Structure formats: structure tokens, C-alpha cells
Amino acid sequence: MSSIRNNWTKEEILNVYNKPMMDLLFEASTIHRQYHDPNQVQVSTLISIKTGGCPEDCGYCPQAARYHTDIKGNDLMSVKQVKAQALRAKSSGSSRVCMGAAWRNVKDGKEFDQVLEMVRTINKLDMEVCCTLGMITENQAQRLAEAGLYAYNHNLDSSEEYYKEVISTRGFKDRLNTIENVRKTNITVCSGGIIGMGETIEDRAGMLVALATLNPQPESVPINALVAVEGTPLENQKPIEIWDMIRMVATTRIIMPETQVRLSAGRTQMSREGQAICFFAGANSIFAGDKLLTTPNPDVNEDMKMFATLGLNPQKPFTKKSQPKTVEASESEFNSLGEKPKWSRPGHKIERNLVASNKAK
Ligand code: SAM
Ligand code: DTB
Ligand code: SF4
After folding, report:
1. Where would I find the beta strands (DSSP E) of the chain?
2. pTM tops 0.85
């Protein structure tokens, strides 16, 4: 078995990414089979628990308040609503629920307490619970862990260099800082990024270096293809070619053998054949459900048909790691600290975002 390396360089990763396709596929699939059951795919369902109105300026995101997109926003959902959706996801074969909130960062108080209750509720349904709530402090991560959170998703999104071109309201280091806070707990780390934002292949390799040199490497790495949403600064980006997704998945698999590589946003644009090559190249997780957070995703029945055609089986919950224990709020060891974290505002000048905000005036 090849060993896990945390000292990958950008040049080495570029050499892997640019291999002849057949060599790349063979190497990725060989490693995939050493570490995983190649016929098993983990299925997650996204629930957008708080949609739209976000103060950040992520150039790809339809939920940023400053862009004029056509999404329907909503305040934080109730625990009851989330439980009903989680039960539906479970009955359609999902082992994990990932709750997303259009927040810059988590603020202690009533809403965070409500999210903690959602985590407790879903963990008690014997499903893996993941959250993606923006930046969090170490204390907030500890409180989520106590509630029974299985994974926290916080993407690096791109290379440190290209990140500045896409987002100005927080820095790449802030992203790493939240990942470090999650790592101090027993919550698993889910972190990946987006391709198709106009980045170079060097940027893709740069993002993968940042992920692969984390020690330990993230347990899950989502690879999203940009969903170019009208009204966002990236609305005119051309869709990526399937070969780019395949190369990205295969490279991720080779340099992070143990991680679950998540074929994430953008599957509505991919053929079943294209997705099958991604599974062969090491993708072993998807988001299922007719919607991602705000944009469309393939129909669940179509995905199940694809699984049947390919002989793929949905992974059972807690196959990779045991179920976390839920501590009730009344027995919690951690109090809310009401911290006001100081996040950096690098103040980069972003041409695309400036163009968008001028257009809005
Ligand atoms: N607000 C939190 C944050 O940004 O960390 C959590 C939700 S945010 C929507 C989660 C991730 O979704 C982003 O980091 C990004 O990778 C992905 N995402 C958002 N919009 C996307 C798009 N249009 N296409 C592909 N991925 C997207
Ligand atoms: C991730 O990497 N992709 C998911 C999940 N983590 C939260 C989100 C994709 C969002 C796509 C755009 C939308 O639906 O709003
Ligand atoms: Fe807000 Fe997250 Fe969207 Fe950025 S990606 S605008 S932080 S919801």
C-alpha cells in the first residue's frame, strides 16, 4: 500500500495532474482500490437551513446579499422542519445530512443554540451530521462536537493566490484557521474547492497542496464544478470540460488516498458516463437530492438508476468512524463565550466584483 504523504509539492502535483489520461486513471484507480471499496459511494443530502442575505462577497455564490440573483432567501429553519427533511433524506438512502447556512461566521446566541439542537436531533436519527456555517471559533467547534457533529465543511475554494481574485471580505488564512479549530475536536474535516472559476491548472495544484499538506489530511474533499449563477460576478464563466473534473478527482485521490473524494456541485452538467469515470478515478461520495443549497442537482431517482447501472452501493452511516455521542444542552461542558472574533479583511481589489457592484448602481 502506498503511504500517506503530507509533503507534496506543487510541482509533484502538477506532474500527477498532467500525466497521460490512461496512466492517471490507472494509478488513481489502483490507489483507490487499496484504500476503499470501489463499489461503495457515500451519499449526503444538503439542507439549506438559512438561505441568502450573506454579507460576504464570494464571487461564485448566489447567496451573497450584494449580488442580484434570483434565489428565495429564508431565515433559520426550525428543528422540526430540519428533522422532517433529514428523515426524508434517510429514507431515500442518504447516510449524511449537511446543513448549510449563508453566514460569514457563527455568532453565539439563540440561532447557534438552535443549530446545536438540529445536530443533536439528526445524530439521534443515526445519520452522520455535517454543518457548513462559515468561520467558527475553537469553543464553537467544541460545542458542535459535544452535540454530536460528525463533520464540518469549510472549503479552501482555490489556491491562496486565486482566492484573492474571488473573495475580498475574508482571507485564505481565515479559512485555514477555522479548519484548525475543527481539528482540535473529534469532528472530521471536509474541505475542498471549486474548479471552473477562471483559475489556472497551477491554482488547482496550489489548492491541492494546501489540502494535502494538512496533517492529518481532510477526511473528505469536495470537488465542485462552478455552477455559474446569473447575477454573480462569475455568471459568464464557461463550463469546465469533464476531463478537467476527471483529472482533478484522480489527482486528489492519488495525493490523498484515504480521503472521501466528493463529486459535488455541477453534476447536472455531467453525463452518467463522465460521472462513472470519476467514480473509477476515485470519487466515492456525492450530494444527492434535487437541490444543492440553492441550485439544481440531478433527480434522486436518476442517481439511484445510475448506481444500479454501475453496481454502486450507498455507504452505511459510520462506516469510516464511529458515531459521536450526543451531550444534551443541560449537561454541556462548554459555555457560550460570546466571542467576537477578529477576522482579517484583506481588502483586495477585485476587478470582477467591482464590475458587478458598479453594474448594480
Ligand atoms: N457560508 C458558508 C461558507 O461559505 O463557508 C457555508 C456555505 S457555502 C455556500 C459552502 C460552499 O459551497 C462554498 O465554500 C463553495 O465551495 C460552494 N459553492 C457555493 N456556491 C457555489 C457555486 N455557485 N458553484 C459551486 N460551488 C459553490
Ligand atoms: C460543497 O463543497 N459543496 C456544497 C456543500 N459543500 C455545502 C454546496 C454547493 C453549493 C452550490 C451552489 C448552490 O446550490 O447554492
Ligand atoms: Fe456567504 Fe458562504 Fe456564499 Fe460566501 S459562500 S457568500 S460565505 S454563503
Report:
1. 40-50, 96-101, 128-132, 151-153, 188-190, 193-195, 220-225, 260-263, 283-288, 313-314
2. yes
